[in-house]
Amino acid sequence: MKIRNKLVGSMLAVTMGVSLTVCGSGFPVMAEEKTEAAEKTEEAEGFPFTLKTKDDAEVTFTHVPEKVLAVNANAGDQLMAMGLGDKIIGRAYTNSKINPKWNDEYEKIANLGDGALSLETILDQEPDFVYGRSSAFSEKNNTTHDTLSQYGIMSLSSIEGYTLGADVEVVYEDFYNLGRIFDMEEKAEQIVNDMKEQIETVEKAVEGTDTVKAFVYDMAQEGGAYTCGDNFTAKLMEHAGGENIFKDMEETWANVSWEEVVERAPEVIVVNNYGDISLEQKMKELKENPALADVPAIKEDRIISVNLCEVFASSMTGDTIEKFAEAFHPECFE
Fold first, then answer.
1. Does residue 222 share a domain with residue 121?
2. What's the Rg (C-alpha) of the chain?
3. What is the pTM of this model?
4. Would you say 275 and 95 are in contact if contact means Cβ atoms under 8 Å apart?
5. Taking each helix axis from N to C terminus, what angle separates 185-206 and 232-239, rounded to the nearest 10 degrees?
6. If both were cysteines, with which of 123, 140, 294, 315 could 81 make a disulfide (CB 3.0 to 4.6 Å apart)?
7. The domain containing residue 329 runs over which residues?
8. Average pLDDT per block of 10 residues along the chain, 334 residues long
9. Are 218 and 148 found together in one domain?
């Protein structure tokens, strides 16, 4: 063992001597001839850093991710908007179409499951980053952020999914976070600036109009419907000159009775299009429900639909606000 240590020490000494000789010999060293170690050091600039996410979990990011899992549709949409499709090795919980600009490309990525992934499935893929909604990171599936960190996997929840009363600022923050994580801050800034400009244009178009009352129909429940309360969709409506009739609920999603819907008399109904129940079926449920016959939105046939990803934090947030505004105040867009 001592002999081996002496040999290693001698070899190091010789190597250092050679290095010093070369450096002092006057031979030119090309600037572009960087060592692998130097390249890795440059790639690691800005790392490590820590972000706080769902349940106040703290995740440390040590490098730019190369193998990514997108475990919800809107998370995949954000990654695709950043031009990161080539880094996504698998997707899951794709219960909604994403931005049509890259939906087809996204659907070609390996589908690992129609619901939340288990820890075993995640580990099998050997990712270095998992991005999704808060529902994808749970104690039930042993996939909390802290658990993934213990396996050396970086992860992050899209902010909107776990924030009561989330507004468009959380979308901006999502993109800023991705820009930092992937060392693409200029791209993130461009996406955010374009979105802000679009939203500002819509807000000016509907300025001074009367607020339109709207109801979100997610799915039927016994004696009523599943709808949103004080959540992201409600905030999108407000930017568009509308108001969610159940915005006073201190929950992001909840069941309500048909009697409550009738009492609040929505002028427009927004149907969430996703999952196994077709849009046509949901439309039929609304229009053929005798309890809703006198609701203004039904009587005047003011019903629109959105893909679920459109009302989650995504690249389409500005488009969704514009879509709502056109439905609430068509006279402003003639």
1. no
2. 26
3. 0.86
4. yes
5. 60
6. 315
7. 210-333
8. 37 38 37 40 77 98 98 98 98 97 98 97 98 97 98 98 94 98 98 98 98 98 95 97 96 95 98 95 97 97 97 98 98 95
9. no
